[in-house]
Amino acid sequence: xxxxxxxxxxxxxxxxxxxxxxxxxxxxxxxxxxxxxxxxxxxxxxxxxxxxxxxxxxxxxxxxxxxxxxxxxxxxxxxxxxxxxxxxxxxxxxxxxxxxxxxxxxxxxxxxxxxxxxxxxxxxxxxxxxxxxxxxxxxxxxxxxxxxxxxxxxxxxxxxxxxxxxxxxxxxxxxxxxx
Length: 179
Prior knowledge:
Elements: H1 3-32, H2 34-44, H3 52-73, H4 80-103, H5 120-138, H6 149-169
């Protein structure tokens, strides 16, 4: 593998890992206050009322499943299927958030228990993670020959924190990890 491809692969895998870590962080909040997630879906009025519980269960399940598998898959050579699932999930989040912003611009976003409306930066975050996971799935990834996981994990954690708080810093309410 050439040096530029190895660097691009490592950068994309770092973004994909950050996306997986953000999914895990979101899952913790959504699972801990499941009723709030359901109430947010009710307020958003994009999902039929009878499906709120099923959609909320699906969101939490996808966050824990794909977030957990995405975190572990960085250490393996078999990350491609998980990365495609992560990309699809973030594209779904991006589409839902874009529809929410267009159709119901004042309702709560629901990201990380935020009570503020959807911000462009939240859309950007979903797009960055979808693109990163897609690119990481397409590019070759060999942990033994690329930058070691000891570098990728801290970089991804930092990126996850930055992309997690960026929308709040742009005018939204500051939401702690514990909310």
